[in-house]
Each structure stands twice: as structure tokens, then as C-alpha cells.
């Protein structure tokens, strides 16, 4: 890991352009150029919005389903196994068939709805729908991971605490939000941090489903990095963007951990 | 002292052990399978098969994929000077990037050596001219292609309409034919290649083109903005998903009776009459775009400058795949760059898209001869799509694209 990271940092200090053969040391020039660029900030904004929406949706759904499974008295193992299936599909393969599901006119959803006389929106062609679709696609694939971790966490909560709360008259939701969630808070931070780090590298699904389009509607930081490296051939600048992304994700994760660590000293 | 001697010996042994498989592997690869990478459409699938079977005792592994994927893979491999590609696909525009960067091997010596054996003088001079960079030939031509106007003759007849003579008529026809079940027109605007193709038609027909003689952008002038505004109006009657549709998706939309008409490559014409894939057999007609200036292109293959394979073998594979007999076999898929095949009256009769394609070759325009065109195409197509989807106004989007293009080209030594 050290060599590729070190090499990327090294290259980020050069005007290394495969298109014109340039390979000149420019210090932090690439970083300065990126930070002054509207396309960088737009793709960062878009990434943050998509990641927060996707991870938020995954967490909400994951917690609800995990709690449902926790309260279920039969068939938990089978349901758990079935729910986990989307998570084991290779992202590119998942994206390919999600593309055919969401494709306009003859995609599975559009085709079915049109058969019923309902004409759906252009899921991948309309900027707002395209953003919503990639969020749904990510949620479909990674909610099972949330379910699995949160379900395991809920099962570690001390039964005596739950029983005591029930004796005091706590209902289903009070039990979840007041007793169980605080008890598994470090696990929640862990799973959110893992998903946030992962979602910031969100590339394959968007690349296959929308290619970052229409226009720049779904162009995230990683899509922009790819465009810089392989379309514009500006390898030095692409490496700088990769390093900036790494720093951003590391900072975000550190802040999350610090926030919880301060409140729950000794939790980590 | 003993320790140092032992450790040095150990180091040498370890280095040799590590180097041996690498060196042996390189030699084994050099003598082994030839790797070919290509864009994919029916004509190129045909030629891939011909390359696989071109020479006895030679194995050619052909990898065919959509255009943008092939271009990206080639760029990655070439820019890292990898020998993982031996024969590479390129068109009349992308080869400029490859040749300028020294990623392709010039073919002049091999062309001269095998001229008689493979009757290479039969290739059209005008096509060969487009494959020259700095006086050297870099590609063996395989197909000659032109964008045609595809339209549903049965629907036009029912409606008492004629194919459009102007872009404005095209807009009105698209509107009149548009229904919830069948779009008025196809539009293929997936960045970068497909969106460049379609923008090329509008910008050259309504606008003043892409660049002036000094490579300064002119696509954002008033007429350019009018062209993209008209494109915006027409795409309102296009099939769903047009912003991410490439040629495959547009071909399917026409084949599956989901769209009435639109601009598409001549190489897709035969697929309209394939009863296994098409619901519009014998219903689709083809015309050269009436105002001309749609894109013409030619596809070919070159030899990687980093290939460890014998260049003669690679050239013979390409030349065998493009001999006269082979090209006659591909005539129903694409126009041939061999004059003897292209002008064969029997083939013209047999393939009903030929008259339109031959006319379109004469009236069309290639993409600008700029080695960085696909790179700046990334800015331009992204901005054009931002305009079409309402994220920006047309003029603002084109001005932004022009600014980005100028900055990029300046960084590549232009405008000095």
C-alpha cells in the first residue's frame, strides 16, 4: 500500500501529462489548480450529497430491517441470507443489470409500467432522477451490509437492560432509540465510517449506469479523477485529486471517531 | 566477511530466481498469443474473425468492446508503454493521438514490402491520406463509414411525409411523429464519441464548425449556439435515455420500433433487416443527410509501438483480413476502403444502403484533425449535455466549453 500511495503523492507534484509528454516538477501546482477549479468543487458537492443520501438511506433501512429481524421469532437465518445476496454481487455486474432495470423505454421498470399504461420518467436521462437512481442503486447493494452489522450489534445488547426497560413500560421504539442504539453507538460509528469511506470511492456503479451524466449530474470526485487520468491524460492532476480525496475521507472519518470518542471516552 | 559473501550470493540467487520467470515469460509472450483490441460492431466482428484465422499456427486473441472502453483501455496500455496490445483499433481521429504520442509503429516499410502481395494499391488514396501523421502511415484501413439518415418509410408513407430536406424540417417531423410509445427521433448523446458525432452534424450544418484555422474554438459563436439550441428542441422528441445512449442503444431503439428516424452509422443499416433482432425488417430506408456535413469516418488497425511480436506477422494478419476476398465478404456490413469493392456495381445493387452511404461519404465531414480532439471532447460533450438537460443555458455552456478547450490546448503547445 505504501508504494502506490507514495508514488501517487510523488506524481501529484508533477505536471505529468501523457497527452503532451510533459513531466515537470511543479510542487503543489496541481493542488492549487484543482482548488481553483469549479469542476472540482461541483464534483465534491455532488459526491457529498450522493454519499450522505445513500449512506443515510442505507443506515435508516438497515436499522429498520435489522430491528425487524431482531424481533422476528422464526426464519431469521433464511431472511438474513437472502437479504445479504445483493452485497455479494460484483458491483460492476450489479450495475449492469441495474442499468437494464432503470433504462428508459425498454428497461424492466419502464417496460412494466408502460405495459400498464403508465409512462415513467427517464430514470438515467433526467439529471435529478439520475442522481436518485444511483443513490437507490448504492442502497440496494450496500443496505445488506448495514443490516448484517447492525443485526449483530443489536444481539449484543445486554438482555437485563432490555428487560428492565420493558418492566418500566418502554415500547418498541423507545427500546430501540433509548436503550439499544446508545448501547451500540460505537458499532454504529464504525459501520457509518466504513460505509462513508467506501461510498466516497463510489465509482463502478455510476460509471456503468450513467458515466457521470447526463451532463455532469452524477459526476463524483472519482469519476472526475478517472476523466482527468484517462480522457484528458493529466496523470499528475488526477493523482493530486486522488490524494485530496484520501485526505478528505481520512479527515471525515477522524472527525467522526473523535466526536464519539469524546462523548464516550473509552469506547474505542 | 563470510556473512557478507553469503548474503550477496543469496541476493543474486533471489534476484535471478525472480528475474527468470519474468524474462522467460516475456519471451514466451513474444512467441505466443497476439493480442488485438477493438471497438465492436458487426463489420469489426467480421474482421476480428478474419484476423483470428488469418495465419496458420498463429493465435490471435481478439477483444471487442464499445468504442469508449476500447479507447480507454488502449490509452491506459499505451501510456504505460505496456506490451499487452499488439494490434490496436483506431479511427481517423483517435489515431492522431496515438501517432503523436509515439504509441503506434509507422507502417510505411511494411506497406511497401507487402504492396504487391496484398494488392495494397487498391486502397483508396483519400482514406489512406487520413491515416497519415507527419508523413507516415499508421493504420491499415478496414472500413469506411458515414452517418446516414435512417427513417421509417412505412410511417412516412402513412403520414404522407417526405424525408427532411433541412434541419428545421427534421425538427418538425420529429415533433409530428413523437408519441408515448414511439419517439419522434433517436438521439445518441453518450459522451464522448456518440455525443461528438451528433454535435458534429449540428455544428457543421447550422453552425460554423468546431475550430478556426488556428484551432481557436468557434463552436460557441452565435451560429453554434443556434445549432445546439436546435439540437435541444429536437431532443425533446427523442427516445428516453438519449443522454446515455451510444450507437448500440440507438440501433436497438430503431430495430425495436421505439423511434421513427434519426442519424446513425451506415454500418448499422444491415442490422435493421436482421429478422432475429429487428422488428422493422424492410421498413427502414436510408438517405444521405440532405444538408450534408454529418460525420464520415474510417476504422483501421495499427501495430503497437510497444509490441514484442514480429511486425511482419502482425502486418500480414491485418493485410490478410483486408484482402479483396475478405472485404467482399464484409461488404454488406460496411463500405470498403478498397476501390475494387466499394465501386462494385453488384455489391451496390445487393446492399440497399450503399447509394445513400456513397453519397454521404462525398458530402460528409471528418472530425477535426486535432490529436487532442477526444480529450477536449470531454469538456465539450459534458457542457453540451448540461445545456440540453437544462443545467446551463446553451450559450453559457458553449462558452464554458470553449474556455476549457482553449486552456487545455494552450497547455499542449497551441496558440504560440
What can you see in these coordinates?
The complex is a heterodimer of chains A (268) and B (416). Chain A is mainly α. Chain A has helices spanning 2-11, 29-35, 38-71, 76-88, 91-102, 108-115, 127-154, 159-167, 172-183, 185-200, 204-209, 221-231, 235-263; strands spanning 14-17, 22-25. Chain A folds into 2 domains: 1-36 and 234-268, no CATH class; 54-221, MetI-like fold (Orthogonal Bundle). Chain A contains 13 helices and 2 strands, in the order αββαααααααααααα. Chain A has a two-stranded antiparallel ribbon with strand order 1-2. In chain B, helix 9 packs across helix 17 (373-388). In chain B, the strands form 2 sheets. In chain B, strands 1, 2, 3, 4, 7, 8, 9 and 10 form an 8-stranded mixed β-sheet that branches. In chain B, strands 5-6 form a two-stranded antiparallel ribbon. In chain B, a hairpin with a 2-residue loop joins strand 5 and strand 6 (136-137). Residues 1-6 and 20-30 of chain B have low confidence and may be disordered. The A-B interface holds A 17-21, 103-106, 110, 114, 119, 122, 124-127, 210-217, 219, 227, 230-233, 235 and B 72, 75-76, 79, 97, 101, 180-181, 183, 189-192, 239-244, 252-253, 256, 258, 371-372, 374-375, 378, 382-383, 385-391, 408, 411-413.
Order of strands in the sheet with the most strands of chain A? 1-2
- Globular, elongated, flat, extended or rod-shaped: what is the shape of chain A? globular
For the record, the count of structural domains of chain A works out to: 2
Strand segment tally of chain B:
10
What is the class of the largest domain in chain A in the CATH system? Mainly Alpha
Approximately what portion of the residues of chain B adopt beta-strand conformation? Answer: 5-15%
Distance between the termini of chain A: 25 Å
Determine the structural class of chain B based on helices, strands and strand pairing: alpha+beta
CATH-assigned homologous superfamily of the largest domain in chain A: MetI-like
Mean pLDDT figure of chain B = 90
| CATH architecture title of the largest domain in chain A | Orthogonal Bundle
Helix/strand structural class of chain A: mainly alpha
State the CATH topology of the largest domain in chain A.
MetI-like fold
Rg of chain B, Å, rounded: 24 Å
Give the ordered list of helices and strands of chain B: HEHEHEHEHHEEEHHHHHEEEHHHHHHH
Low-confidence parts of chain B lasting 5 or more residues at pLDDT below 50?
A: 1-6, 20-30
Oligomer: heterodimer
Mean pLDDT of chain A: 88
Distance between the termini of chain B: 63 Å
Number of strands of chain A: 2
Amino acid at each position: 500500500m505504501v508504494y502506490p500511495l507514495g508514488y501517487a503523492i510523488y506524481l501529484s507534484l508533477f505536471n505529468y501529462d501523457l497527452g503532451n509528454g510533459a513531466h515537470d516538477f511543479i510542487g503543489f501546482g496541481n493542488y492549487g489548480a484543482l482548488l481553483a477549479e469549479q469542476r472540482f468543487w461541483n464534483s465534491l458537492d455532488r459526491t457529498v450529497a450522493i454519499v450522505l443520501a445513500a449512506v443515510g438511506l442505507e443506515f435508516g433501512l438497515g436499522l429498520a430491517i435489522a430491528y425487524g429481524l431482531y424481533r422476528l421469532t422464526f426464519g431469521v437465518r433464511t431472511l438474513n441470507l437472502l437479504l445479504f445476496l445483493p452485497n455479494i454481487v460484483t458491483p460492476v455486474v450489479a450495475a449492469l443489470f441495474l442499468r437494464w432495470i432503470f433504462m428508459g423505454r425498454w428497461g424492466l421498470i419502464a417496460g412494466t409500467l408502460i405495459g400498464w399504461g403508465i409512462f415513467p420518467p427517464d430514470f438515467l436521462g433526467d439529471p435529478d432522477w439520475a442522481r436518485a437512481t444511483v443513490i437507490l442503486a448504492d442502497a440496494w447493494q450496500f443496505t445488506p451490509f448495514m443490516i448484517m452489522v447492525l443485526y449483530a450489534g443489536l444481539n449484543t445488547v445486554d438482555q437485563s437492560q432490555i428487560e428492565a426497560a420493558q418492566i418500566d413500560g418502554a415500547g418498541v421504539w423507545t427500546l430501540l432509540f433509548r436503550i439499544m442504539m446508545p448501547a451500540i453507538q460505537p458499532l454504529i460509528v464504525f459501520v457509518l465510517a466504513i460505509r462513508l469511506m467506501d461510498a466516497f470511492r463510489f465509482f463502478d456503479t455510476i460509471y456503468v449506469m450513467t458515466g457521470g451524466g447526463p451532463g455532469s449530474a452524477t459526476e463524483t470526485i472519482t469519476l472526475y479523477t478517472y476523466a482527468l487520468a484517462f480522457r484528458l491524460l493529466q496523470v499528475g492532476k488526477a493523482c493530486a485529486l486522488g490524494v485530496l480525496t484520501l485526505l478528505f475521507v481520512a479527515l471525515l472519518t477522524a472527525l467522526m471517531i473523535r466526536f464519539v470518542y469524546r462523548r464516550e471516552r473509552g469506547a474505542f | 566477511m563470510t556473512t557478507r559473501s553469503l548474503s550477496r550470493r543469496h541476493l543474486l540467487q533471489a534476484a535471478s530466481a525472480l528475474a527468470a520467470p519474468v524474462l522467460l515469460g516475456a519471451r514466451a509472450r513474444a512467441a505466443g498469443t497476439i493480442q488485438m483490441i477493438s471497438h465492436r460492431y458487426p463489420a469489426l466482428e467480421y474482421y476480428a474473425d478474419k484476423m483470428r484465422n488469418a495465419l496458420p499456427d498463429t493465435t490471435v486473441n481478439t477483444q471487442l468492446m464499445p468504442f469508449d472502453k476500447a479507447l480507454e483501455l488502449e490509452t491506459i496500455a499505451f501510456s504505460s508503454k505496456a506490451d499487452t496490445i499488439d494490434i490496436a483499433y483506431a479511427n481517423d481521429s483517435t489515431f492522431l493521438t496515438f501517432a503523436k504520442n509515439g504509441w503506434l509503429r509507422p507502417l510505411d516499410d511494411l506497406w511497401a514490402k507487402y504492396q504487391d502481395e496484398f494488392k495494397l494499391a487498391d486502397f483508396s488514396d483519400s482514406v489512406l491520406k487520413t491515416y497519415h501523421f507527419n508523413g507516415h502511415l499508421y493504420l491499415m484501413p478496414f472500413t469506411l463509414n458515414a452517418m446516414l439518415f435512417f427513417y421509417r418509410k412505412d410511417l412516412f408513407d402513412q403520414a404522407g411525409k417526405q424525408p427532411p430536406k433541412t434541419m428545421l424540417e427534421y425538427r418538425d417531423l420529429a415533433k409530428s411523429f413523437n408519441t408515448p410509445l414511439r419517439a419522434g427521433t433517436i438521439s445518441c448523446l453518450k459522451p464522448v464519441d456518440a455525443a461528438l458525432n451528433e454535435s458534429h452534424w449540428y455544428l457543421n450544418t447550422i453552425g460554423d464548425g468546431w475550430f478556426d484555422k488556428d484551432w481557436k474554438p468557434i463552436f460557441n459563436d452565435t451560429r453554434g449556439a443556434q445549432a445546439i439550441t436546435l439540437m435541444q428542441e429536437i431532443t425533446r422528441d427523442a427516445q428516453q435515455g438519449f443522454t446515455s445512449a451510444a450507437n448500440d442503444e440507438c440501433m436497438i431503439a430503431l430495430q425495436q420500433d421505439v423511434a421513427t428516424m434519426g442519424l446513425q452509422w451506415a454500418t448499422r443499416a444491415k442490422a435493421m433487416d436482421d429478422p432475429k433482432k429487428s422488428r422493422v425488417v424492410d421498413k427502414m430506408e436510408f438517405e444521405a443527410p440532405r444538408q450534408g456535413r454529418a460525420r464520415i469516418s474510417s476504422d483501421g488497425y495499427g501495430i503497437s509501438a510497444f509490441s514484442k511480436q514480429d511486425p511482419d506477422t502482425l502486418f500480414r494478419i491485418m493485410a490478410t483480413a483486408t484482402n479483396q476476398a475478405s472485404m467482399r465478404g464484409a461488404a454488406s456490413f460496411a463500405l470498403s476502403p478498397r476501390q475494387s469493392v466499394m465501386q462494385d456495381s453488384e455489391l451496390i445493387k445487393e446492399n440497399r444502403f450503399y447509394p445513400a452511404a456513397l453519397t454521404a461519404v462525398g458530402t460528409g465531414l471528418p472530425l477535426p484533425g486535432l490529436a487532442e480532439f477526444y480529450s477536449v471532447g470531454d469538456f465539450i460533450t459534458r457542457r453540451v449535455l448540461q445545456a440540453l438537460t437544462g443545467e446551463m443555458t446553451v450559450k453559457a455552456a458553449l462558452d464554458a466549453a470553449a474556455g476549457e478547450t482553449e486552456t487545455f490546448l494552450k497547455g499542449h503547445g497551441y496558440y504560440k
